[in-house]
Amino acid sequence: MIRGSIVALITPFHEDGSVNYDKIRELIHWHIEEGTDGICILGTTAETPALTVTERDKIVEVSIEAAEKRIPIIVGSGSNNTLVAKEQSIKYEKMGADGLLVITPYYNKTNKAGMIHHFTEIADAVSIPVILYNVPGRTGCSLSYEALKELSQHKNIAGIKEASGDISFVAKIARLADENFALYSGNDDMIVPLMSVGGAGVISVAANIIPSEMHRLVTAYLEGDVSLAKEIQLKYLDFINALFIETNPIPIKEAMNVMDMGVGKYRLPLYEMDEDARAYLIKTMQILYDQKRLLTAV
Questions:
Q1: Which active-site residues does the annotation give?
Q2: What's this model's pTM, rounded to 2 decimal places?
Q3: Which of 107, 155, 242, 276 is 20 to 30 A from 93, comparing alpha carbons?
């Protein structure tokens, strides 16, 4: 079980729209230096639906090589096609992934029994930890408590990234969390509330730009310094909220580019930020850097 801050890594692009694999290596080295506890690739923040199979495989290969076992690499292998998700999970395990992130089957939404069979078939096919990914705002479906209760007993299902934003549901499923089943926040704005009911950390978008602070927040809570954890959570709240003023990962990539991190733009259908939204995002970034440096970068 990983306890801490796991970054939901963006996918950087060159100006011509091709994947910038050198930048992926650079970002992974930087996250290790900054204290990030794990790296999740090919998730929502990675624009995975817009990547080709060849690009996905290359990203996995490059990420695992760059990490050199210094930090766990969790790979998004989910699909709304159970057979595809199973094949991808087996492939990424063979490539050296330390864990898998598997999303609920979107579009062709299923019932409780279908959910259980979907995840069980995938988890049965691998021997590395599987983290379930519940994000109904994206998928249009949600894991039920009853399905999750059964799935949490599977020996290869090690936790859940819970991104419903429903604190009542979080509190309910927190009763399932133990040393074999971890609860991770999928929402940067509610890390402390989730950890207060037994969460193990966060799979974070904000960690793409403030990795050391996200690590410090989670570590503080785990070490019993709730006051410091709360202080960090509230300090960055406006910025965190601004990262979702438009569809993720548009704002986080914009913020990284404002700070000269050179991660490139997006792939359609994702597009440039609205100017008013961009101005608000930059305003909230004042808390991250001194005003002179920020305005120079803009």
A1: 133, 161
A2: 0.92
A3: 107
